[in-house]
């Protein structure tokens, strides 16, 4: 009995693993319908076929797991190893996970489609109402334009407020720098020889400026002469 059980177990496990891989591939395709930005009002042929294929694979896997369970139960203690029991538990857990995933994706797709249909119905009702009441449609348009203008004014007021605040900060900083400068000048006046040193530094800067200006003028004259 152990000889007949071994090949049957291996073959069933191979089929189960192959179906699990196919289920993962179909789930990748089916999940795109749940995350589609513009879901159609009714299921497309591709969506229906993908969902049906996933359900068929889940049913086949459930049957194979029942066969694996039967073989493991009917086998002798020598051939019924802990590894086989662990493999069977893993296949059963993966099946339950995929069944839950299918249920969750179905609910998500149905919710997205219901929300899209409701939004489409509301938009259609609004368009019909405006078509039958042109005065109301014009009033709504004017209200929308007024709202946009008010939002624009709000943005402009916010920018002006920020500009005034920055300008005020610049004024405070200028006043602070002026106070610091006055303190420095006052402190320098109290130290003997500081005013004379500052005057000599200023005179040297002016002299250097005259020399540099004369040199630049000379270079320009020479350039114009040789042209």
What's a concise summary of this model?
The protein has helices spanning 2-34, 45-74, 82-132, 134-190, 194-226. With 227 residues, it is mainly alpha-helical.
Q: Features of this protein?
A:
disordered N terminus; mainly alpha; elongated; 227 residues
What is the residue-mean pLDDT, rounded to a whole number? Answer: 78
Q: Report the sheet-strand fraction.
A: under 5%
Order of helices and strands: HHHHH
Distance between the termini: 113 Å
Number of helices: 5
Radius of gyration: 43 Å
What percent of the residues sit in helical stretches (DSSP H or I)? over 70%
Q: Report the sheet with the most strands, covering strand number, pairing sense and barrel closure.
A: none
How many distinct beta strands? 0
Classify the secondary structure makeup into a structural class. mainly alpha
Low-confidence stretches: 1-7
> Which geometry do the CA atoms define?
elongated
């Amino acid at each position: 009995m152990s000889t007949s059980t071994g090949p049957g177990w291996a073959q069933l496990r191979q089929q189960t693993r192959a179906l699990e891989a196919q289920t993962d591939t179909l789930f990748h395709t089916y999940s795109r319908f749940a995350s589609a930005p513009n879901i159609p009002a009714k299921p497309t042929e591709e969506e229906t076929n993908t969902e049906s294929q996933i359900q068929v694979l889940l049913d086949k896997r459930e049957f194979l797991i029942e066969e694996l369970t039967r073989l493991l139960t009917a086998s002798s203690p020598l051939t019924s190893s802990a590894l086989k029991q662990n493999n069977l538990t893993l296949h059963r857990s993966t099946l339950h996970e995929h069944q839950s995933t299918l249920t969750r994706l179905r609910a998500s797709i149905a919710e997205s489609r219901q929300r899209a249909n409701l939004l489409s119905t509301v938009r259609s009702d609004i368009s019909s109402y405006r078509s039958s009441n042109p005065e109301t449609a014009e009033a709504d348009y004017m209200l929308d334009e007024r709202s946009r203008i008010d939002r624009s004014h709000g943005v402009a007021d916010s920018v002006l407020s920020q500009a005034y605040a920055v300008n005020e900060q610049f004024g405070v900083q200028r006043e602070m720098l002026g106070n610091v400068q006055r303190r420095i000048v006052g402190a320098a006046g109290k130290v003997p020889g500081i005013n004379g040193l500052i005057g000599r530094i200023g005179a040297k800067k002016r002299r250097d400026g005259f020399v540099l200006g004369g040199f630049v003028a000379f270079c320009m004259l020479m350039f114009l002469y040789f042209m």
